[in-house]
Please model this.
Amino acid sequence: MNSPIMIACAHGTSNTQGAAEVNALRAAIAELRPGLDVREAYVDVQQPDLVDVVAGLPEGEAAVVVPLLLSVGYHVKVDIARAVKSRPGSAAAAPLGPDPRLAALLDQRLREAGVTDNDVIVLAAAGSSNPNAAISVEELLGQLRELRSNRMVAAYGASAKPSVPDAVAMLREELEGGAGAGESAGAVDVGGRVVIASYLLAPGFFHDQLAKAGADVVTEPLLPSPVLAEIALDRYDAAVEKARQAAAHAPTETTAQAPQKAPAEPAANAQQGGFFKAVRRFVTKYFPR
Model:
């Protein structure tokens, strides 16, 4: 039995190493799930563009777009949502983060960098104008706090505050006993370092900026790690199950039972009906009773 196509959609980067890491992630997903059709797509910078990939799907084939992104933001809420809406029978999965496994991976990167309990940490995310992205990052920060006793704050590379350089400057002032110290400093031990924990998927523009933010240490990005492939497949499976349940509970209507429609039925209603028909075909094909 074939599974729905997975469109593993990343942001896109001009960084050669970053692009290679994301491609290796797709390969790892396919290796964990033999037989799954895993396709490449991007929302920016690289090709193939997600819209073109969705438009080029085989007729009648179901697909799930899995965002290889760490939080909900513009690309998830707008770019991916529009692409999925353009093709009945397709669905969007949740992004990779937040997830306790990502917090554990960040803790691993911090340990690899030699970070001690005396150090203070800036959790550096890319940032988004969508407030839900910051909520996701704060949730991840809470998960990381369960693993480490360090003083930690979240900061962003763009579109949200505080910026990474501002957060680094604030924590450095705390360490030096400046105006920022006091109750806000919590359990900081004087003499520690300011560390940036890179909450980024792979090397690229935003990770390059972290080295310029004034910290003493910057951790490596999350990739490479098998954890990301496992999370991506979990997001895919959850989206497939959600589509199956939605189709199972969607109202069915025979020609004899159908009420008479007004001749000028709104286009939105027609599109919705087409969506449920596509989802029912999806379930019939991939989840036969």
